[in-house]
Write a structure and sequence with these properties.
about 80 residues, mainly alpha
């Protein structure tokens, strides 16, 4: 099933480049947009600004539990 839709606030340069690339690949702009949207929605959602908190979930990846190894690496 397909739909006819209007996309608002798409800048002209992006549309022209997408239309041109679609034509080079023998696709319609609708096929290209569908492909791009499918790829975009299949990607896992990223937590904006919270990536640093992921480190806190895995303390085993923090390295040595005491500073002796750090001191050895820095002061040798």
């Amino acid at each position: 099933m397909t739909m006819n839709i209007t996309i608002r606030d798409l800048d002209d340069a992006t549309y022209r480049k997408a239309k041109s690339k679609a034509a080079l690949e023998n696709k319609t702009i609708g096929q290209a947009v569908t492909e791009a949207l499918k790829e975009w929605i299949s990607k896992p959602r990223q937590k904006k600004g919270m990536a640093f908190l992921d480190v806190l979930d895995h303390p085993e990846d923090w390295g040595p539990s005491d500073s002796s190894q750090v001191d050895e690496d820095i002061y040798r």
